[in-house]
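Dear support,

I submitted the protein below through the web form. The confirmation email said the job was done, but the results page showed an empty box. After a refresh the structure appeared. I'm attaching both so you can tell me whether what I see now is the final result or a partial one.
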Amino acid sequence: MIKITEPASVVLNAVRFICSQGVLAGHLVVFFGLSCPYLVNMASYCVLMFFVLSGFLISHSLHQKKKNNPDYKFSDYFLDRFFRIFPPYIAALVFVFAIDLIGFSFTGQYFSWTIYIGNFFINSLQLQEFPLATWLNEKYMIEFFRFHYFGTDLPLWTIAIEWWLYMFYGFLIFFFFTHEKIKLMRVPVLMMLAITPVYYILVSARMEKGLTLYWFLGVLLTAGGTMLYLNHRLIFYFSLLLILIGIFGFQSLGPQVSILIFILGLFLLLQSTQNQPIKISVGLQKLTEYAAGYSYSLYLIHYSIVYFVTTVFNFEKDLNHFIMIYVAINIVAYIFAEIFEKKSKSWKLKYENYRSRTN
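What the results page shows now:
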């Protein structure tokens, strides 16, 4: 199985940081009404790169744990994903609830307590914009099935897609891609889990079609294994060049071509670092770990903060305020991650210790 070496880990962390910053900068530009189409488009493009990275990292983690521990089960995989996603996610819902209510009290914006609280629980179950509910709402005009993203936090719609991709892929690997005889009772469960992944192949929703395909392109990086032995330092540097072109060249090359270049760069990066001793300073490793360490938290809360600041406060939307708010949101997200995201592993360990005592 392919390894994520230190050089590859540094690059992947750097990409995660760039993507999270690209999303924030793009959304800030929209709210500030600035004329910068490149950054506006970059916000959407970075989401595509997040899907590729997610497909690779989740599949790599799953297969690595299965390889290292033959007793690793779907329940273990579920707990890994649950404690990675949900502690900061639920905290973000509460955070958005609070700043939305404060913001609406200042602006006088109407909202319904019933819908708001109901939507909180819908989002807690990762059912925001669930395709089956969307279809029932649109076809039969049943308001009950209007499963919207929570409050002002628009980016939450992609979190639900990724969650169902995790569950679908894990269920497929543990219960269908095995040497055991397939049990028919598992088929309806797989079909239910497949609703979101299939829907986002065929329907564009808020972005272009094929979000599921981008995720599985990332999975292919894991499935490829060590196919080539490209132990030449030039290949490593060439892979970095391709990754940079893939990240920043989307405006001229188009998103599809840029994503393919990006994936090729990741593939060559992983292949060229398998057996080659490329020195990476400890300082650079730590820097990229810190930079990427709050990217999920930043993604979860940034949009509602931008909405709050730009609707509640009356200020001139110039470059100075842009930079000030940009930095402030990064600081808030970092603190948020330290409180809720970084402690997910310890909370999982406490849960496992509790389960072991009660059993």
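Response: this is the final, complete result; the empty box was a page-load delay. Residues 6-358 form one domain.
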